[in-house]
# Entry
Amino acid sequence: MQQDKTHFDIAVVGGGMVGAAAACLLAQQGWQIAVIEQTEPDAYSPEQAMDLRVSAISPASVRLLQQAGVWDALLAMRIRAYTELATWEVPGLETHFHAQEAGVPELGFIVENRLIQLALWQRLQTLPNVTLLCPAQVSALVQQSEDATVTLNNGQTITAAWLLAADGANSRLRSMAGIGINRWDYRQDCMLINVDLEDDAPPITWQQFYPNGPRAFLPLAGHKASLVWYDTPEKIAQLVALSPTQLEREVKRHFPEQLPACTVTQSGAFPLIRRHAQHYYQGRVILLGDAAHTIHPLAGQGVNLGFKDVACLVDLWQNARQKQLPFGTEQLKQYERRRLCDNSMMQSAMDLFYAGFSAPHAPLKILRNVALLVADNAGLVKRKALRYALGL
Ligand SMILES: Cc1cc2nc3c(=O)[nH]c(=O)nc-3n(C[C@H](O)[C@H](O)[C@H](O)COP(=O)(O)OP(=O)(O)OC[C@H]3O[C@@H](n4cnc5c(N)ncnc54)[C@H](O)[C@@H]3O)c2cc1C
# Structure
């Protein structure tokens, strides 16, 4: 690591899962990279409590993490494969998706967000062309025609030809670049609840839809699982005020009978907001991950979309280099065109689920349950939809 450098090809602001993955892959292409991150991830030990924030990682994201050289490190920590996904509204009318229908050994893996970030950081620390500036935040941005200058909150100033804004949903760099967002509050919050089980969790993730939102089960490594309870902000506020024993009682009363016997160990609540940036770049600043878009997490697509942004950008950088062209307006337009379209489609699909399953009217209820039944027997269409959701 070269801490005294002040000019870089690319500075990544935000070293979370998306920013750190972009930094690894671009560094592997040989660019001089700076990563500016406010908080370094804690080291791993197997005794540590499970992180509340976990992600369902698709096979496409696994490929990206393999290319970044971190998949084996993740396998050596805590990770859980799942081979089946079930969803229903009326018990008994369940739609099942199996890995073999998509032609893959597993539908994905449930991994703690912090461990994905940690594995990427460990990799970044081995790359000689990466400078980690941490703890640090960007406090000022000045854009020039050929590069941009950022001042950090410790007084340090660096310049970079390109700045990647990967600083999350409330991106400060996005605001500094003057990029607006379209924002919509789902009026639904979500409670994440970690539980201990008596046995190993089955390799199945499931979700039942209720009028106020779904309730979901995600298996974790060991005898553990993550439960997700979506409900009105008022109901989630009531749940937050409960003791672990009271919450456990509520979980047992309100979750589907498929829930194995469990003990609540940890919980936390999150508001759900859909955001989409009005532009994916401005001058020398390029948005990716949650800085560009946030989505309803009911199908676990958020970070998978962020990793698709990374794959697209890295590919455009590589192609430009192979053709001996500078990375510039043409690549930026292509990035925005490709990713805006894909991200908008996935956001709309999630909104359709959210709105469709929130409507209480009897004809709509019949229609959506027929749709689920049709989906369960849709053969090729089901296989194609599944492969799309897995990023294949
Ligand atoms: C309840 C819930 C459940 C979810 N479940 C799933 C799931 O199952 N599957 C899935 O794919 N997605 C899921 N998501 C979405 C997923 O968590 C996000 O899409 C993902 O975390 C985005 O990663 P990111 O790196 O873009 O942003 P973040 O994870 O927010 O990382 C941003 C990074 O930038 C740093 N940072 C922020 N501001 C600054 C600053 N000013 N200066 C320096 N550094 C800064 C932060 O410290 C952080 O490290 C879920 C989201 C929620 C809310």
